[in-house]
Please model this.
Amino acid sequence: MHEVSFEVRAGELRAFVGGSDEACREVMSALIAQQAAAREARGARSERDAVGYVRGERGGRYEGLQVGRLLGYAAELGLRDEPVEVRGERVEAMIATLGLGEVRARRLRDLDALARWKVEVGECALLGARDWVVMIEGDEAARKVKLKVLKEVCRGGAVLAISGSAVGLEGVEPVGGAVAVAREVA
Model:
């Protein structure tokens, strides 16, 4: 991993294809730890700290919350300077963009893997993520849907997609520095 440059510029979507899902999770964890260390070294929180980490489709936190409520909480935190009406409009727009209208009243634990992933993307966006590190798992169709969602939601930000396979990620430029990664994505 030390040989790979993870540099992604604003407005770019690039991919790191790491082999196994376990390897991808290790890369994700290392990037989160590195960003946390950099934030600690800088001291005060800055605009550069607004990174959305979408870890994947597994369960975990907030399993009992409904989709609409979780996205509403994210908007309250990320858009606290905006009037309530604006926050509500942003939540509704995010639900529509992510295609979550039919599941807005369902609890996270009752969603399929793709819907859970979309909710996590929406949560990060409403919290104010400007740059993104995103796990992309699933079959080819799921990967293509996720890629489309990222292009829609993460406009203007730097997006690093981490995946165990390049299938469904055609057309996404690989991060530099690793010959094996470049060959698999190409």
